[in-house]
């Protein structure tokens, strides 16, 4: 300010000088044509009420420049450009010199100028805030403002970024980016990178509807793929020409260092202007931010950071930083204006403000935090009349199963399984259809279908009871989410030890922590026997050295102790836990509950903490319950925790800690409960009750529709006659054995006149009841009517039975016959069966599964359906024409070729439609089975079938690059398959020597699975491959049923020797060896593994082509089966995958042929219509 006042040159040039303007004569009026008028945009102000609309539209027009960065936008909207700096303000002042002090000059400003200047600065401040809010909306919040007309995208698809439940949110964010920003670009190019690269196209494509749909589908098909190889992706994309901007989206720390990436990028873009917009998507690793900042700076681009768990600062970028700097300049300018108002422009005011700030800094920050009412007052202790229970214990007494309200319990007395019985005459198993027509069909809990007798009054009463149970569950859920239970969950134990996290990171939330303790002491501690409180930061602070009995005085003293807590240090939870266990619970054997209230992960590693908690809780009645308080990441100095994790990672780690301590997990924030084990069980029971009620409604509605249909459709006379005949057959009584008698006079006359009558009369004379057992001599001794008893039985089996009655005529005493029931001709047509496939996946091999649900078993073989005897197309030789001519009826039916033979297509159009529908349902189920086989641990290890298994892992030196991934897959195998489906298991690692986890098979429990995972994490790759010794070790386990051998190459010993030795060891035992090829491209080694599996009846598995298989299955399920050849399934080599893919290809061929047959029938129907219309 002093320099400005002393600069006379500035004052002379900038301040207006008074001057007398000369008198000018007014020019005559002239019509002037204005050519540079702006077009009318419909907002010309003609009334004062339109001013606000005009101003709001101008503001939106300013923010609508979405293709400008903040630097570009500020060139027209900065304080300098708007002439709102101190330099421009002083330009409106004038110099005043006092008469007494001629050497001192003062500036004078009019008050209206200062007010106008201050008002304009406030308007610009609001405009900057609007711009910042606009930048924090939609895809701009997650990825920033995308620049460039031809944009190349590098998307991180590593397992760290697309795993742990992040994939769905990440795909949604990318789809939002496509719809909001990338759709306005000219060209774009997509490349995802993990361990491998995956490009959508080879070259950049123009943006249109088709390419946008392809990009959306590509984003939805993203899958985790190993580590984060950013350098490999950069090498690929710099070779793509015609790109003028790059967008790098990174969600984890790259494999390479920041220096190597920056050096390589600097060399590649030398001479090219390709700015990089580097985006850190929900990543807290500091190396990720350092690398992306460096890449943005070296290329002249911009940096953007986005976090899903941060409440105070969701995103930060160079654009927002530029606006923040401009806001700071505006704030400084407003302070200068305030100084001008009070007449102080020197150092006096600044010194006073610094003193005040120093004194304020000495006050603890919790003194400034808002406190709830009556925060410092004594407790108002509430008395509870009952002892609370966990939801698991409560549901044992009040759940649907306990109250016998399960739908299957209610319907069990009236449910019948379909009867199947083998008929020797038909030589096949026949199912009964009577119950299926008289009853309703319902899918049972085990996947089978049962015939159920529906009793509407019973189901109505059952639904009333379900409604009452639902109301009870809702009250329980509301009760669990109110008062202190919203923070601490349900405190159930008699003896309680509370741990409170008072690390420096929680200093802004100390009031919340104290208020949570107050609610706990008031509402849930009055009915306990003893308690204690422990607060921990870097140091441990206990309310009492040992647990004390619960009395009102002790609770009040504990609250006064809680009011003295102050946050400092980090989270030393393990030290606090050891102090309590060693000092207070070392000799206690009673039940005790440990409740931990924290906002982050402990200082120590989670493996060490989980191991210690599992050890102390294993031998006593002790449970550790976790209460996670989710807070925002405050950007304050001195508040960085020793170990940081994102909110999702924190929740996963603490959930695992609660499982190690056999306790419950409770996650909440200020808005409400996010996750609670107690509430989750109640909601699951409510969903089960709603499902039961829906099934009841479906049963009643189906019964009603069937009743209406039967009442509206009168029975046919033929059907009623059939029912009567069946009833007569069922009620037929045994006839008495007829006695042999002499021939009557009429029969003797008929016998004498036999030569004159036809053969029909003679046959009538030989008729006798079918139930007659006596031997009656034949009526005529002709040889052609004589049959032995064996021949008669064969003839009765082959020929259809005919029912007829005999009578005597009035003329000549002749005998006549009347047929009452004509023989039925067996139909040659085959009907389209209805296919039922279970939704739940069955743990079995593909060969066993297809024996139940294959195309042949489901009777959907199209060739058999159209290859009956009456479908044959025959030509006969006509001697007069001297050529072979088809029959007349051949032109009636379309002709198709089946397996090289020409057949007549006699299927109707509706039958083909039904067949196509059934095959499409079967194909969808097959593809779901394929996706299930390619997911989880089944992708690498296949499906574990036996109950007692031994896993052999090859840890030779060649597996060193893949050993970390193998450990993860093995962990997934232990928890996903061995823990759920196996009875006992063991692990064996083999390289130069064989290393076993245990000496025998261990039962699959939580403890043994934890120990197995820890043992497998210490495996080291080294040495050769001693496959034979590993197999010999596995056969030493007496009760082993299946051996799973995973290896990446040939063994050190002879393959034939291993086959012979394995055959010798397996004699009389029936142990199946399943072989797994892991990253092995050696055909000889794979052939050996196939022979070893086939020799013992096992399966060979190789996960080659799993990604292509998942993609092809997804495309077919999403896009349908319009094309038989696109997409194609990869050529799988594993037994299960190969069999299933072959069945899928077979079904697709049948589906294509059925659609072509349908087209033929449609053409056949159209041609007669055209001929009729022509005539």
From TrEMBL:
TM stretches of this protein: none
Domain of life: Eukaryota
Span of domain VWFA: 948-1144
Pfam families assigned: VWA_3 (PF13768)
Gene3D superfamilies registered for this protein in UniProt: von Willebrand factor, type A domain
PANTHER family, alphabetized: VON WILLEBRAND FACTOR A DOMAIN-CONTAINING PROTEIN 3A
Protein name as it appears in the record: VWFA domain-containing protein
Species the sequence originates in: Scyliorhinus torazame
Lineage, broadest ranks: Eukaryota, Metazoa, Chordata, Craniata, Vertebrata
């Amino acid at each position: 300010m002093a320099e400005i006042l002393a600069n006379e040159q500035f004052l002379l040039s900038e301040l207006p000088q008074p001057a007398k303007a000369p008198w000018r004569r007014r020019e005559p009026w002239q019509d002037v044509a204005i050519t540079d008028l702006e077009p009318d945009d419909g907002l010309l102000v003609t009334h004062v009420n339109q001013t606000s609309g005009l101003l709001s539209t101008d503001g939106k027009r300013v923010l609508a420049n979405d293709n400008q960065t903040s630097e570009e936008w500020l060139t027209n909207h900065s304080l300098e450009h708007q002439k709102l700096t101190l330099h421009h303000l002083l330009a409106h002042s004038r110099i005043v010199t006092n008469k007494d002090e001629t050497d001192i000059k003062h500036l004078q400003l009019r008050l209206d100028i200062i007010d106008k200047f201050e008002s304009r600065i406030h308007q610009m401040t609001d405009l900057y805030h609007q711009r910042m809010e606009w930048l924090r909306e939609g895809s701009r919040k997650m990825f920033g403002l995308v620049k460039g007309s031809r944009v190349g995208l590098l998307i991180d698809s590593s397992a760290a970024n697309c795993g742990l439940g992040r994939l769905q949110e990440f795909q949604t964010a990318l789809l939002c980016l496509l719809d909001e920003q990338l759709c306005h670009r000219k060209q774009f190019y997509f490349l995802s990178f993990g361990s491998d690269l995956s490009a959508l196209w080879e070259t950049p494509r123009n943006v249109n509807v088709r390419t946008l749909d392809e990009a959306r589908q590509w984003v939805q098909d993203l899958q985790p793929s190993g580590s984060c190889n950013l350098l490999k992706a950069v090498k690929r994309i710099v070779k793509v020409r015609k790109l003028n901007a790059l967008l790098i989206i990174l969600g984890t720390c790259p494999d390479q260092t920041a220096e190597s990436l920056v050096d390589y990028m600097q060399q590649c873009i030398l001479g090219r202007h390709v700015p990089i917009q580097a985006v850190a998507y929900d990543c807290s690793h500091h190396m990720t931010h350092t690398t992306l900042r460096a890449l943005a700076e070296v290329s002249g681009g911009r940096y953007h950071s986005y976090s899903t768990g941060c409440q105070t600062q969701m995103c930060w970028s160079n654009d927002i930083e530029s606006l923040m700097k401009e806001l700071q300049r505006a704030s400084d300018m407003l302070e200068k204006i305030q100084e001008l108002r009070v007449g102080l422009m020197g150092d006096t005011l600044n010194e006073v403000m610094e003193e005040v700030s120093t004194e304020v800094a000495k006050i603890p920050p919790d003194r400034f935090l808002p406190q709830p009412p009556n925060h410092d007052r004594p407790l108002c202790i509430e008395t509870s009349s009952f002892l609370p229970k966990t939801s698991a214990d409560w549901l044992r007494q009040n759940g649907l199963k306990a109250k016998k309200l399960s739908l299957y319990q209610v319907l069990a007395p009236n449910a019948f399984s379909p009867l199947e019985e083998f008929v020797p005459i038909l030589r096949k198993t026949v199912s009964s259809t009577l119950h299926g027509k008289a009853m309703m069909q319902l899918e049972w809990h085990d996947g089978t279908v049962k015939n159920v007798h529906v009793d509407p009054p019973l189901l109505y009463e059952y639904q009333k009871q379900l409604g009452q149970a639902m109301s009870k569950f809702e009250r329980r859920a509301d009760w669990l989410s109110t008062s202190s239970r919203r923070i601490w969950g349900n405190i159930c134990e008699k003896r309680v030890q509370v741990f409170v996290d008072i690390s420096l990171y929680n200093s802004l939330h100390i009031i919340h922590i104290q208020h949570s303790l107050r609610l706990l002491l008031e509402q849930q501690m009055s009915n306990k026997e003893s308690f204690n409180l422990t607060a921990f930061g870097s140091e441990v602070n206990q309310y009492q050295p040992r647990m004390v009995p619960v009395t009102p005085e002790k609770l009040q003293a504990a609250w006064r102790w809680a009011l003295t807590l102050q946050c400092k240090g980090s989270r030393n939870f393990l030290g606090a836990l050891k102090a309590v266990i060693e000092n207070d619970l070392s000799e206690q054997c009673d039940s005790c509950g440990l409740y931990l209230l924290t906002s982050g992960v402990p200082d120590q590693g989670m493996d060490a903490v989980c191991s210690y908690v599992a050890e102390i809780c294993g031998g006593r009645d002790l449970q550790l319950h976790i209460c996670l308080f989710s807070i925002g990441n405050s950007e304050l100095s001195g508040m960085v925790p020793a170990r940081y994790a994102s909110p999702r990672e924190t929740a996963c780690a603490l959930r695992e800690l609660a499982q190690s301590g056999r306790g419950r997990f409770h996650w909440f924030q200020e808005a409400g409960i996010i996750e609670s084990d107690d509430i989750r069980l109640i909601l699951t029971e409510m969903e089960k009750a709603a499902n039961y009620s829906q099934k009841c409604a479906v049963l009643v509605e189906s019964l009603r529709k069937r009743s209406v249909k039967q009442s509206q459709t009168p029975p046919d006379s033929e059907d009623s006659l059939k029912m009567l005949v069946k009833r007569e057959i069922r009620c037929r009584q045994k006839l008495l054995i007829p006695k042999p008698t002499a021939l009557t006079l009429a029969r003797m006359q008929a016998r004498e006149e036999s030569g004159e009558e036809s053969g029909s009369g003679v046959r009538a004379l030989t008729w006798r009841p079918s139930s007659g057992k006596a031997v009656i001599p034949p009526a005529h001794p002709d040889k052609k009517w004589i049959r032995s008893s064996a021949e008669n039985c064969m003839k009765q089996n082959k020929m259809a039975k005919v029912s007829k009655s005999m009578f005597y005529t009035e003329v000549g005493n002749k005998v006549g016959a009347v047929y009452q029931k004509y023989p039925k001709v067996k139909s040659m047509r085959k009907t389209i069966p209805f296919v039922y496939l279970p939704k739940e996946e069955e743990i079995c091999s593909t060969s066993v599964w297809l024996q139940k649900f294959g195309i042949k078993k489901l009777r959907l073989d199209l060739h058999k359906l159209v290859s009956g005897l009456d479908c044959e197309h025959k030509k006969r030789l006509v001697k007069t024409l001297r050529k072979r001519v088809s029959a007349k009826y051949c032109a009636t039916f379309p002709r198709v070729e089946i397996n090289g033979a020409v057949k007549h297509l006699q299927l109707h159009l509706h039958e083909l439609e039904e067949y196509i529908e059934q095959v499409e349902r079967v194909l969808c189920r097959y593809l779901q089975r394929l996706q299930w086989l390619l997911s989880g641990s089944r992708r690498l290890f296949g499906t574990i079938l036996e109950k007692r298994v031994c896993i052999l892992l090859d840890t030779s030196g060649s597996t060193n690059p893949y050993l970390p991934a193998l450990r993860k897959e093995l962990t997934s195998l232990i928890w996903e398959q061995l823990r759920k489906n196996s009875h006992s298991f063991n692990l064996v690692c083999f390289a130069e020597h064989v290393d076993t986890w245990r000496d025998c098979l261990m039962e699959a429990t939580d403890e043994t699975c934890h120990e197995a995972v820890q043992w497998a994490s210490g495996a080291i790759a080294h040495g050769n491959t001693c496959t034979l010794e590993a197999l010999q070790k596995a056969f030493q386990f007496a009760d082993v049923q299946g051996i799973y051998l995973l290896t990446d190459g040939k063994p050190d010993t002879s393959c034939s020797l291993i086959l012979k030795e394995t055959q010798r060891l397996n004699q009389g035992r029936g142990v199946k060896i399943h072989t797994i090829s892991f990253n092995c491209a050696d055909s000889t080694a794979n052939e050996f593994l196939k022979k070893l599996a086939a020799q013992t009846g096992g399966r060979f598995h190789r996960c080659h082509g799993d990604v292509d298989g998942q993609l092809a299955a997804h495309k077919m399920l999403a896009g349908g089966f319009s094309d038989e050849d696109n997409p194609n399934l990869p050529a799988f080599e594993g037994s299960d995958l190969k069999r299933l893919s072959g069945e899928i290809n077979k079904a697709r061929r049948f589906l294509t042929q059925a659609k072509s047959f349908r087209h033929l029938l449609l053409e056949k129907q159209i041609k007669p219509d055209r001929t009729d219309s022509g005539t």
